[in-house]
Specification:
254 residues, alpha/beta, TIM Barrel, eight-stranded parallel barrel, two-stranded antiparallel ribbon, 10 helices, 36% helix, 27% strand, globular
């Protein structure tokens, strides 16, 4: 029996508020994280991701309080990250209520961080976030909120991250992020084929058909979206009903 595909809303926060942009820039206020978390839990989301995109040290206490408040509203797994540079940072996020931690730039700079977190919490609790941008015939890993190239191939980095102890890949197409032009199916399929762990596709979702496409053709295990849920362009309940009617295995909300 195949595992159900997951639908995962994402809350990008500046510490206290949810924000959203296009191609990682042009941020706008998108609401209160606690209110959105509560709505998504009720609508039937399978998991929730909360990312601190400010990720500066002086905002850390604010972000941890946001995690605590969001976790109190959820009966589903919570993944949190943004600015996690050390094992102690990861411990703080888990103590605040996260079930999983996600790392990006700091892991590129020091891959041993993945192994340290995996030994502490188990691989199933370590999500390697990869922001990938098409450059010629391959995808570059982007860091620092998608602003800088790490001069590293995304497929190679995904394989390295899994070998280091990551139990899941959160794969965001920088080219598609916030554009609502559809997931990058080619990128997602390539990474899914390169690793043995679940891949969460992110960047570009709008229509229910985009989700069908990423599950069928992109081989994604989960799909993440933000603005279409925040702006109520698409409800999670209706999306899951559409997916089920299209033959995609999902966990339907009660």
């Amino acid at each position: 029996m195949s595992l159900a595909h997951r639908i995962i809303p994402c809350l990008d926060t500046d510490g206290e508020r949810v924000v959203k942009g296009v191609n990682f820039v042009g941020l706008r206020d998108a609401g209160d994280p606690v209110a959105l978390a509560s709505r998504y839990d009720t609508e039937g989301a399978d998991e929730l991701v909360v990312l601190d995109i400010a990720a500066s040290r002086d905002r850390r206490p604010t972000f941890l309080e946001t995690i605590r408040r969001v976790a109190a509203e959820l009966a589903i797994p919570l993944t949190a990250g943004g600015g996690i540079r050390t094992l102690e940072d990861g411990r703080a996020v888990v103590r605040a209520g996260a079930d999983k931690v996600t790392v990006n730039t700091a892991a590129v700079e020091r891959p041993a961080l993945i192994s340290e977190l995996s030994r502490e919490f188990g691989a199933q609790a370590v999500v390697l976030a990869i922001d990938a941008k098409r450059v010629g015939d391959h995808w570059d890993v982007m860091v620092r909120g998608g602003r800088e190239s790490a001069s590293r191939d995304a497929l190679e980095w995904a394989r390295m991250g899994v070998a280091a102890g990551a139990g899941e890949i959160l794969l965001t197409s920088v080219d598609r992020d916030g554009t609502q032009s559809g997931f990058d199916v080619t990128l997602t399929a390539a990474v899914s084929a390169a690793v043995s762990v679940p891949v969460i596709a992110s960047g570009g979702a709008k229509s229910p058909g985009h989700f069908v496409e990423i599950f069928r053709d992109g081989a994604a295990d989960a799909a993440l979206a933000a603005s279409i849920f925040h702006d109520e362009v698409q409800s999670i309940r209706a999306l899951k009903q559409f997916l089920a009617s299209s033959g995609i295995e999902v966990r339907l909300p009660c």
